[in-house]
Backbone:
């Protein structure tokens, strides 16, 4: 990690270094202990609002993620401390109360590491990083955790990454875990109480373009047909029992198919034959029919 990146991290997450180095600022970041359930300090113990705990845990996790990117399972810091990969996993999972899965975090870290990214211009890894859709909002030298932990639109980056991985034949479990985290990030950012104190400068953080935004939105919902016992296909055409081949729709499209304007998930109030389900929830809710299909890449 560069000196510039380290200074940026320290400036934007006051107390995180103190948390790791000693008791000063102990409420600002999660403890990393052998007792994984206590990684995030509880508000009852420290009188810290839950939202602040989550923000601290997220910031710490993405700092660790950035430190570990391209460095294997562990990283030795300048002061001699060793940060393990699963500390990153548990810190980020604790921020959103999820079960950890080391693999997908390592995949994401490796792909977002500047040295490992091919650029669209074809000039080689590490060049023209601003043209890469995952890094379109990143300041030069800025650690990824600052961007993903601060920007309310960062969930789109994680979701688009997970969708590309799934569509390219990557590990489906890793992709689905990424989608779950993206959904959690989106819900967290939607609460005004959790918004950053100062919004990112639009001139420094250009928004995702129309194609990238569409890519992120399309993986939000799947539509299940009770009549056909299968998923709706792409572009509202046909049905498939293979979840990898199912159509990905944004919320408005999925609700229109399901015939309802109500919110929530498993939305079958308007038409009981069709159910709109967030993609990350689809695997959990239909595990008995999707477990054997996750690695399928054949036709519908």
Residues:
């Amino acid at each position: 990690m560069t000196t510039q990146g380290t200074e940026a991290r320290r400036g934007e997450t006051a107390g995180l270094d103190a948390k790791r180095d000693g008791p000063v600022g102990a409420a600002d970041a999660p403890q990393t202990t052998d007792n994984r359930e206590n990684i995030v300090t509880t508000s009852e113990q420290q009188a810290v609002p839950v939202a602040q705990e989550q923000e601290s845990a997220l910031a710490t996790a993405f700092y660790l993620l950035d430190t570990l990117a391209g460095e294997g399972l562990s990283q030795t810091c300048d002061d001699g401390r060793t940060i393990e990969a699963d500390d990153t996993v548990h810190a980020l999972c604790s921020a959103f109360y999820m079960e950890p899965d080391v693999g997908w975090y390592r995949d994401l870290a490796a792909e977002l590491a500047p040295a490992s990214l091919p650029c669209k211009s074809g000039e080689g890894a590490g060049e023209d990083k601003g043209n890469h859709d995952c890094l379109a909002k990143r300041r030069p030298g800025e650690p990824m955790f600052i961007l993903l932990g601060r920007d309310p639109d960062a969930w789109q980056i994680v979701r688009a990454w997970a969708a590309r991985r799934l569509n390219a034949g990557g590990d489906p479990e890793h992709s689905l875990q990424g989608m779950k985290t993206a959904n959690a990030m989106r819900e967290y950012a939607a609460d005004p109480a959790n918004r950053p104190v100062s919004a990112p400068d639009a001139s420094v953080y250009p928004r995702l373009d129309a194609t990238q935004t569409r890519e992120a939105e399309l993986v939000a919902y799947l539509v299940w047909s009770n009549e056909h016992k299968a998923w709706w296909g792409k572009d509202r055409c046909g049905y498939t029992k293979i979840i990898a081949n199912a159509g990905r729709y944004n919320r408005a499209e999925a609700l229109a198919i399901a015939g309802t304007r109500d919110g929530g998930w498993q939305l079958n109030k308007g038409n009981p034959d069709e159910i709109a389900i967030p993609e990350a929830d689809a695997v959990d809710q239909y595990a008995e029919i999707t477990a054997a299909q996750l690695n399928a890449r054949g036709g519908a």
